[in-house]
């Protein structure tokens, strides 16, 4: 009987779906909040639609924008045969369309994937990454990026940030008196306009703050999902782990560090246990190295579990 | 993979499609009559070796099974530059059906142990009387075939490949997207 070694992490999926749901709710709450504050449903609708439009534009032009920002250029199979060969094979394994491949000339080891759909995606690596990683580690990083493409993470993250975009627009608009004007014409007195302005400002600032933390949380979940899918694609989670260690520089700064000992030591410290959610962990777009390595170790043990016939 | 699975980030690895491989023996006859290319009796399976004891045990089982058959003299295992493992099976050139059975056995054993997603492709070698050689490549995930005719390092005979494709069009599911026609430089047995 054929069976699968892939175990979907339902806890991760549930948490992530919840965050996406909350972000959607936040967007609606913001538009309704403006509607109530300035008592102008039309204006609130326009703000909402323009906000979504900005998000849509960012998503639509994501490939060219990101490539330009990173000063990356697309490479042909003739220029980078190994890189293209790797991407070719991974795409054949995953049964997905092949994205374009780019290289950015910078020493910082990094990689990114962008593009509005799997068909129009770009996977880009820096020359620093190519220099530091061996072939299998590079492949693991590419598999991680291809998983971002397959999961449509650019779309998910831009839509997720639309509440933040709208909130930002409202705060900007309030500075130029867009909303106070609207309020005044309806009320016919200054007090109502000022109150509406303050209310709209307050609502959008709160929404902006909540949206900031939620999108970062969502981003961390998406990274863990991409790690998972990438590791199952190459079937070598340890290679992704060593690539991550090289990229984050932990390896260079603390040579031969044994992660098991640090984790055991954590039990003796009260501070790390309580401050599991410090400001830096709440605002970072990527999960901590430890968290990612832990997940990869779990996948590795799933992969080496003996089969029913063995 | 469904759209919602992608959005929720729980894309499961693609399982391999194994059955189309049994169309190869009749395709071999078509190629012999149509283009004068005969099977060389060399076939190979390319897969991704996973980390861990379970995969190593599976791989040993496969090699033991293939070598237990007296008609398959020797199973060769090589690892290419991309870290993919090739198992090469040799049979008499007339026995294409037997070769396909051997290749299928490798696939089934891998799939039984949950390593079906590790399968990349399978290659059956063909050679013409004029010295041209080509491989008929089966992509497991897409369930399609394409011809690959290397003529030297980093060079392939596209004309022959198109010829082969047209010959086999009615016989086997052919990969429509030329971008998926992977260049398998250094594939053993070609």
Task: Tell me the layout of helices and strands.
The complex is a heterodimer of chains A (310) and B (190).
Chain A lengths: L9 H29 L2 H20 L1 H8 L2 E3 L6 H14 L5 E5 L6 E4 L7 E5 H6 L2 H16 L2 H8 L1 H14 L2 H10 L2 H45 L2 H12 L1 H4 L5 H8 L3 H5 L4 H5 L5 H16 L6
Parallel strand pairs in A: 2-4
Antiparallel strand pairs in A: 1-2, 3-4
Helix pairs in contact in A: 1-2, 1-8, 1-10, 2-7, 2-8, 4-6, 6-10, 6-11, 8-10, 9-10, 10-16, 11-16
Chain B lengths: L2 H5 L16 H12 L1 E12 L4 H16 L6 E5 L4 E7 L5 H17 L6 E10 L4 E7 L4 E5 L1 E3 L2 E2 L1 H11 L22
Antiparallel strand pairs in B: 1-3, 1-4, 2-3, 4-5, 5-6, 7-8
Give a verbal description of the structure:
The complex is a heterodimer of chains A (310) and B (190). In chain A, strand 3 (111-114) and strand 4 form a beta hairpin. In chain A, strands 1-2-4-3 form a four-stranded mixed sheet, with helices on both faces. With 310 residues, chain A is mostly helical. Chain A has 16 helices and four strands. The model of chain A is unreliable at 182-188 and 250-277 (pLDDT under 50). The relative contact order of chain A is 0.12. The two termini of chain A are 13 Å apart. Chain B is an alpha+beta fold and 190 residues long. In chain B, the strands form two sheets. A six-stranded antiparallel sheet of chain B has the order 2-3-1-4-5-6. In chain B, strand 4 (119-128) and strand 5 form a beta hairpin. In chain B, helix 2 packs across helix 5 (158-168) and helix 3 (53-68) packs antiparallel against helix 4 (96-112). Chain B is globular, with a radius of gyration of 17 Å. Classes of the chains: A mainly alpha (310), B alpha+beta (190). At the A-B interface, helix 1, helix 4, helix 6, helix 10 and helix 16 of A face helix 3 of B.
């Amino acid at each position: 009987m054929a069976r699968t070694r892939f175990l979907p992490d339902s806890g991760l999926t549930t948490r992530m779906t919840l965050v996406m749901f909350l972000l959607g709710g936040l967007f609606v709450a913001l538009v309704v909040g403006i509607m109530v504050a300035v008592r102008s449903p039309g204006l609130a609708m326009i703000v909402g639609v323009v906000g979504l439009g900005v998000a849509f534009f960012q998503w639509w032009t994501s490939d060219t924008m990101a490539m330009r920002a990173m000063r990356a250029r697309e490479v042909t199979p003739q220029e980078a045969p190994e890189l293209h060969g790797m991407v070719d094979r991974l795409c054949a394994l995953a049964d997905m369309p092949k994205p374009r491949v780019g290289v950015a000339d910078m020493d910082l080891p990094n990689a990114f994937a962008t593009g509005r759909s799997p068909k129009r995606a770009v996977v880009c690596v820096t020359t620093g990454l190519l220099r530091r990683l061996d072939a299998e580690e590079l492949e693991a990083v590419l598999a991680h990026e291809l998983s971002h493409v397959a999961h449509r993470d650019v779309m998910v993250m831009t839509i997720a940030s639309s509440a933040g975009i709208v909130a930002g627009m409202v705060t900007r608009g309030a500075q130029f008196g867009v909303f106070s004007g609207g309020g005044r014409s309806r009320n016919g007195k200054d007090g109502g306009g000022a109150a509406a302005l303050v209310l709209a400002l307050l609502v959008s600032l709160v929404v902006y703050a909540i949206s900031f933390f939620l999108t970062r949380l969502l981003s961390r979940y998406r990274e863990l999902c991409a790690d998972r899918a990438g590791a199952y694609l190459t079937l070598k989670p340890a290679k992704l782990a060593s690539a991550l260690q090289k990229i984050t520089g932990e390896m260079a700064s603390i040579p031969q560090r044994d992660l098991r000992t640090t984790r055991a030591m954590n039990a003796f410290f009260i501070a790390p246990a309580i401050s599991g959610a410090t400001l830096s962990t709440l605002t970072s777009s990527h999960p901590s190295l430890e968290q990612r390595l832990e997940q990869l170790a779990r996948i590795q043990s799933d992969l080496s579990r003996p089969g029913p016939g063995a | 993979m469904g759209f919602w699975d992608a959005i929720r980030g729980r894309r499961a690895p693609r399982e391999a499609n194994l059955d189309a491989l049994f169309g190869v023996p009749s395709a071999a006859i078509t190629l012999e009559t149509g283009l004068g290319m005969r099977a060389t009796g060399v076939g190979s399976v390319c897969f991704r070796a996973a980390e861990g004891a379970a995969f190593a045990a599976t791989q040993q089982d496969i090699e033991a099974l293939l070598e237990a058959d007296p008609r398959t003299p020797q199973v060769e295992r090589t690892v290419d530059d991309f870290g993919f493992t090739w198992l090469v099976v040799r049979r008499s050139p007339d026995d294409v059906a037997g070769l396909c059975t051997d290749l299928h056995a490798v696939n089934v054993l891998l799939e039984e142990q949950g390593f079906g997603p590790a399968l990349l492709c399978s290659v059956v070698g063909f050679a013409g009387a004029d010295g041209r050689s080509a491989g008929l490549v089966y992509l497991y995930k897409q369930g399609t075939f394409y011809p690959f005719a290397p003529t030297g390092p980093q060079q392939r005979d596209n004309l022959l490949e198109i010829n082969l494709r047209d010959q086999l069009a009615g016989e086997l599911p052919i990969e429509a997207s030329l971008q998926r026609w992977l260049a398998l430089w250094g594939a053993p047995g070609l």
